[in-house]
Design goal:
The protein is an alpha+beta fold. It contains 25 helices and 33 strands. A five-stranded antiparallel beta sheet has the order 2-1-5-4-3. Strands 7-6-10-9-8 form a five-stranded antiparallel beta sheet, sandwiched between helices. Strands 12-11-15-14-13 form a five-stranded antiparallel beta sheet, sandwiched between helices. β16 and β17 form a beta hairpin.
């Protein structure tokens, strides 16, 4: 038989009632004595939590803290329980719970030894083991109950219990332990046997609790409450009161009252509540945004976080933590954060970094984020997230970084080499310095500046006392030769100045300029200026440079002497009036100022009398200025174009003379032809009197046209209006033999002229009006034709004796080939106006002519005045 099997046999044969269970509440086994005492067999593996209340109390399962504190070898945990087995009487059992020695890897086990505390104990018959002397199987005797021993044990248990226990029947306190009396502040031994009033008179709070418990016991049979006791000379104590009724409700009220001291628990609870209030106060009033996060969702958050995010407090709970971050700032940082932060948080229990938060204003808000697990062993319980606003600092750092990058970019773009040295050697150099030294920045980092110095022992780059000798802001200027890594040796001029670095350490910064290139540039500039000066001196045109403020001559080439009539060397410092005279100089000064005011090139042409000859000069003015600045000099370029203009004028005059000759010849032939046509028409009128009237009108019109062409034969260009009026009046007078009195008013009558396109329509209109006046007027009186000239218009009035028909209006005259209809059709609409009115016994017909139908003869050109268009001869 194995030791395990033997132990099971002896466990079942022990006459004492035994039951074994583990810390998880599983019933492992029970012997026959316990099954007989309990009245039924308990199945192994059953849970104590699913058994009756009596078994849980007997095994101590209703007091788990006491079981946890029970250790192997320690005094057993004593429990009392009452069971009903179908009889009116109750059976009281006492259980002693012992802890088994702990076995590694197995749950802790407990053994409960059950004693029957009734006066008559059950006789438990158990089979004897096979090796006992008596093998008959008969019972050997009865186990008698030792009542005195039982009372002693109960008294010992009651007195050693940390709780105050009392037994009351009706209104009499039958029995209590000393702990009960001491807890109520009474003298031990004075309370048993007394009426309940002795207890109620001690404190009104006890009376109130007793009243409440009496009501509850009548209804439910159990009452629990907390009681505050203030005993004289003792601090305030808090007790947990548990009152349970025993016996049937029909009998006298019997109760067991148990007082447990919970003062320390209440004190701890008060401290916890105070700590909770402090925590809530700090949570609510903290300027740091705090949130509790579980499963990626915000469970709670303080107002500071809502204010930081610009949201309402009630909108944060239930919101995803990831939704608080903005994803359009730095995708690489977010990828690292979202994928790895939780791994680091679960491994290390905390994480710290900076994140960009969403904000209603549209721009991200930077915050320092701290995450810490609530329970590092259970990451699923969530974590605390705190947010500190570092937006100003973050943006300041960004601005500083951006400013530093801009500064580096500016320094890289300048043509001056800049090198910074600290105690470890070269720390930084710009692009110009790298190009100057013939290498990249990594080639020089950490090296002394003497790396590019010539072997000269006194070379400035070998001086190491600048960091100690120079004061802040003080500079040292030097000039030396530098030998680049490419072997090129060149001269530089530079400054050395002491500055402060990132950690306030002293640094020295060199600013170097390659003066070899500058000297080459200066030489090229001097050569270019000399070449330009030779070109200016050899140019066949006048070139003069003047000061923009005083207009005095600064420099002039040799050819300028022909324009200024003075040696160029003597003209320096003189004004235009001093060189060219008052009138000519004033004219040149006005054009110079006009060119300077417009800041654009200006071209003028002048005619100057030079002795008996007239010179023509083409002059261009060019303001000289730097970009965006006011011109400080004026360049004058002049060319003598007298011969060119004379040749052009001769060619023009020849062309005009030839054209005029051809035009006169054509007009003469047209006049002769028209006169021949008029003669033929007169012959036809003589042969056919019936059409003489109509033909006479046509003859008059043809002769009027011939008169115009006759006038054009003797004059070139536009005809004088006065000559046309006189010729038409004479022609009508010859045709009809009617006297026409011509009157001319106005001092400028001979200056008004007609364009060629308007001469024939105006002549035909005058012919028709004079003919109409002759037909409808009295033949015995002379006709009057007046030409009235004003400053801006000319009026032609024809007066004859007659009467206009009633209701006469020119607007009602139909068009035709003669008479008023022809006149209305021929007169230009924009520059003429025809009116007819009755003045006493005369009919007045008036034609008003205005420009552009007529024009004044232009004023002849004044010698020496500017002429021609502006032509830019200088490059713009």
């Amino acid at each position: 038989m194995t030791p395990r099997a033997a132990a099971d046999v002896w466990f079942d044969l022990v006459p004492q009632a035994l039951v074994e269970f583990d810390e998880q509440g599983h019933l492992l086994r029970s012997n026959a004595a316990f099954n007989t005492l309990w009245g039924k067999t308990l199945a192994p593996g059953a849970l104590l939590g699913q058994q009756g209340e009596a078994l849980q109390r007997l095994t101590g399962w209703d007091a788990p803290l006491a079981l946890i504190g029970l250790s192997p070898g320690a005094p057993p945990l004593t429990q009392l329980a009452c069971i009903h087995q179908g009889t009116p009487n109750q059976r009281y059992l006492r259980g002693e719970v012992h802890a088994h020695p702990t076995v590694a890897g197995q749950p802790e086990r407990f053994l409960c030894v059950v004693h029957d505390t009734n006066p008559m104990a059950f006789v438990v018959q158990t089979p004897r083991p096979p090796d006992f002397a008596n093998t008959s199987g008969e019972p050997t005797g009865l186990l008698e109950f030792d009542q005195d021993q039982l009372l002693h044990e109960l008294r010992t248990i009651l007195e050693s219990s940390p709780a105050g226990i009392a037994y009351l029947r009706a209104d009499i306190l039958v029995r209590c332990n000393r702990r009960f009396e001491r807890m109520l502040g009474l003298t031990p031994g004075t309370l048993p046997g007394q009426h309940l009033n002795a207890l109620l008179d001690g404190d009104p709070r006890i009376r109130r609790v007793v009243t409440q418990s009496t009501i509850e016991l009548q209804n439910t049979g159990q009452f629990e409450s907390e009681l505050e006791i203030v005993a004289p000379g003792y601090p305030t104590r808090w007790y947990a009161l548990s009152v349970r009724r025993i016996g049937p409700r029909t009998d006298t009220l019997e109760v067991i009252a148990v007082l447990s001291d919970i003062t320390r628990i209440r004190s701890q609870q008060a401290e916890l509540e105070a700590l909770g209030r402090d925590r809530d106060l700090m949570f609510s009033l903290s300027g740091v945004g705090i949130a509790f996060v579980r499963d990626g969702l915000v469970q709670s958050a303080n107002p500071a976080l809502a204010n930081l995010l610009g949201l309402e407090d009630q909108t944060l709970p239930g919101r995803s933590l990831a939704s608080l971050y903005t994803a359009d700032v730095d995708t690489s940082t977010l990828a690292r954060t979202d994928d790895q932060v939780m791994v680091q948080l679960s491994q290390q229990g905390h994480w710290q970094g900076e994140r960009a938060l969403r904000h209603p204003r549209g721009t991200p808000l930077w915050a320092e984020v701290n995450l810490r697990l609530v329970n590092p062993d259970q990451p699923d319980e969530g974590f605390i997230a705190s947010f500190v606003n570092v937006d100003d600092r973050h943006r300041a750092e960004q601005n500083l970084t951006l400013q530093a990058d801009r500064t580096r970019a500016i320094l890289d773009s300048v043509f001056v080499g800049i090198v910074t040295l600290d105690s470890g050697g070269i720390a930084w150099m710009n692009r110009s310095a790298r190009r100057m030294f013939g290498g990249d920045l990594p080639d020089f980092l950490g090296h002394p500046l003497s790396t590019v110095a010539t072997p000269d022992i006194d070379h400035p780059f070998r001086q190491t006392g600048y960091l100690d000798d120079l004061l802040d802001g003080q500079s040292h200027t030097f000039e030396c030769q530098v030998m680049g890594r490419d072997g090129r040796v060149f001269w530089v001029v530079g400054n050395a100045v002491v500055t402060l670095g990132e950690f306030n350490e002293r640094q020295i910064t060199y600013a170097l300029m390659d003066i070899d290139r500058r000297r080459e540039a200066e030489a090229l500039t001097v050569e270019a200026q000399a070449t330009l000066q030779r070109i200016i001196e050899m140019a066949p045109m006048t070139i003069t440079l003047c000061d923009a403020k005083t207009l005095t001559v600064i420099q002039a080439n040799q050819a300028a002497s022909a324009f200024m009539n003075i040696e160029p060397s003597k003209a320096q410092g003189l004004t235009p009036e001093q060189i060219h005279g008052t009138d000519r100089g004033r004219q040149l000064r006005a054009d110079m100022l006009r060119a300077l005011d417009s800041a654009k090139p200006l071209q003028r042409e002048y005619k100057f009398e030079q002795g008996s000859a007239v010179q023509t000069w083409d002059v261009s003015y060019l303001p000289l200025s730097h970009d965006g600045q006011t011109a400080d000099q004026l360049l004058l370029v002049a060319s003598d174009v007298s011969e060119q203009r004379a040749a052009e004028q001769a060619r023009l005059e020849a062309a005009i003379a030839q054209r005029e000759m051809l035009v006169k010849e054509v007009h003469h032939r047209i006049k002769n032809n028209l006169q021949g046509v008029a003669g033929l028409l007169q012959q036809i009128a003589a042969r056919k009197p019936e059409v003489a009237s109509a033909i006479s009108e046509v003859v008059g019109q043809v002769q009027a046209i011939a008169q115009v062409y006759g006038l054009q034969v003797g004059a070139g260009g536009p005809l004088r209006l006065k000559n046309v009026v006189e010729a038409i009046a004479q022609s009508v007078q010859r045709t009809f033999g009617r006297t026409i009195t011509l009157v001319v008013e106005g001092c400028n009558a001979s200056e008004w002229q007609l364009p060629e396109a308007e001469s024939i329509p105006i002549a035909l209109s005058l012919n028709e009006l004079l003919t109409n006046a002759h037909k409808h007027g009295q033949h015995s009186e002379a006709l009057t034709c007046a030409m009235i000239c004003g400053e801006h218009e000319v009026g032609i009035e024809i007066r004859n004796t007659g009467v206009l028909p009633d209701g006469f209006s020119l607007n009602r005259v139909p068009g035709g080939v003669s008479g008023l209809g022809l006149v209305r059709a021929l007169l230009p609409r924009r520059s003429s106006k025809l009116t007819m009115s009755q003045e006493n016994e005369q009919v007045v017909t008036r034609i008003e002519l205005t420009p552009p139908g007529i024009s004044l003869v232009p004023t002849p050109h004044v010698l020496g005045a500017p002429a021609g268009q502006q032509i830019a001869l200088w490059p713009q």
